[in-house]
């Protein structure tokens, strides 16, 4: 007996169907094409001996990455002269994550934090002497993020016409904020999956206020993170490469994981930095 499936089906696949009667072809939305990947930059060093301090410092940074076990390390950059500092900056480059800390009284950014191309290796400027810090995220972010630049009204926020679901969300976030500890699990409120009105969003902004930290993570699209005025409550929004919002959330946590370097990232950075140092030397 002949099996009905012994032959490939006819009339399927690209080019098997006739064109539409009006001669038009189906058009698709353009898909994201670019994604940032690691590319090592090898500075040209003519006299390694004169740049020994920078090379020694980078070697120490690589060791700190390799041995990191919850113990952050900071390296003072004031010990480097201009040429050595320039070599360090050129080698570290600029990675995907950056953070700005604001001072409400001064009305400006007072601390700038930039991740290098080696994940978990950060340059911190404005918080005392310039330094390189090896950590998932520099501690100063968590320490200063929730100094309110705009006080939220909390439960006293007036419920204006059009507000539907915001008040219970404010109560939920206030409860989670009050009970949060470093061992608490991340709690996420996904506005993209919850029905809400524009008035709800305004109510949330008024209730939570604004903190003093803004974080940007630029990888496959963008993630924009802003501290609220309520401790450990972050507004986290994801955008695709065409700058269309694809996810709108609040996270109750120390620092959102999307901005932090993982243990594996630090180990990988140690290996990559050593390879660069071998090439320079």
What topology does this entry show?
Blueprint: H1 52-67, E1 73-76, H2 82-92, E2 97-103, E3 108-115, E4 121-126, E5 128-134, H3 139-144, H4 166-179, E6 187-190, H5 198-208, E7 213-219, E8 221-227, E9 233-239, E10 245-252, H6 263-280
Antiparallel strand pairs: 1-5, 2-3, 2-7, 3-4, 4-5, 6-10, 7-8, 8-9, 9-10
Helix pairs in contact: 1-2, 1-6, 4-5
The CATH homologous superfamily of the largest domain is called: HupH hydrogenase expression protein, C-terminal domain
What's the alpha carbon Rg, rounded to whole Å?
25 Å
In whole angstroms, the N-to-C terminal distance is 74 Å
Number of strands: 10
How is the largest sheet built, in terms of strand order? 1-5-4-3-2-7-8-9-10-6
- CATH class categorisation of the largest domain: Alpha Beta
- What is the level-2 CATH architecture name of the largest domain? 2-Layer Sandwich
- The structure class reads alpha+beta
Largest sheet: 10 strands, antiparallel
Determine the fraction of residues in helical runs and give it as a percent range: 25-40%
Number of helices: 6
Overall 3D form:
elongated
Whole-number mean pLDDT: 87
Total individual domains: 2
Low-pLDDT runs: 1-6
Describe the structure.
This protein has 281 residues and is an alpha+beta fold. The chain folds into 2 domains: 45-96 and 116-136 and 261-281, no CATH class; 138-260, 2-Layer Sandwich (Ribosomal Protein S8, Chain: A, domain 1), CATH 3.30.1370. It is built from 6 helices and 10 strands; from the N terminus they run αβαββββααβαββββα. The chain has a 10-stranded antiparallel beta sheet with strand order 1-5-4-3-2-7-8-9-10-6, with helices on one face. A hairpin with a 5-residue loop joins strand 3 and strand 4. Helix 1 packs across helix 2, helix 1 runs antiparallel to helix 6 and helix 4 (166-179) runs parallel beside helix 5 (198-208). The termini are far apart. The model is unreliable at 1-6 (pLDDT under 50).
């Amino acid at each position: 007996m002949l099996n009905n499936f012994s032959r490939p089906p006819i009339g399927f696949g690209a080019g098997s169907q006739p064109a539409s009667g009006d001669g038009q072809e189906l058009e698709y939305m353009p898909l994201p094409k670019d994604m940032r990947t690691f590319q090592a930059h090898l500075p040209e060093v003519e006299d390694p001996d004169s740049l020994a301090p920078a090379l020694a410092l980078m070697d120490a940074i690589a060791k700190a990455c390799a041995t990191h076990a919850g113990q952050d390390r900071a390296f003072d950059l004031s010990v480097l002269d201009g040429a050595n500092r320039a070599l360090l900056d050129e080698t570290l480059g600029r990675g995907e994550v950056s953070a700005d800390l604001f001072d409400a009284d001064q009305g400006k950014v007072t601390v700038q934090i930039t991740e290098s191309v080696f994940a978990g290796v950060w340059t911190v400027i404005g918080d005392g002497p310039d330094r390189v810090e090896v950590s998932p995220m520099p501690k100063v972010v968590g320490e200063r993020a929730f100094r309110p630049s705009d006080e939220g009204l909390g439960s006293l926020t007036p419920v204006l016409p059009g507000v539907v679901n915001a008040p219970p969300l404010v109560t939920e976030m206030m409860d989670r904020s009050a009970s949060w500890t470093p061992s608490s699990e991340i709690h996420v409120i996904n506005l993209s999956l919850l029905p809400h009105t524009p008035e709800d969003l305004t109510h949330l902004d008024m209730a939570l206020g604004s903190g003093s930290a803004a974080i940007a993570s630029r990888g496959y699209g963008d993630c924009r993170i802003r501290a609220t005025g309520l401790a450990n409550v972050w507004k986290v929004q994801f955008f695709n490469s065409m700058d269309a919002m694809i996810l709108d959330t609040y996270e109750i946590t120390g620092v959102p994981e999307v901005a932090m370097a993982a243990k594996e990232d630090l180990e990988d950075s140690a290996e990559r930095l050593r390879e660069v140092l071998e090439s320079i030397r």
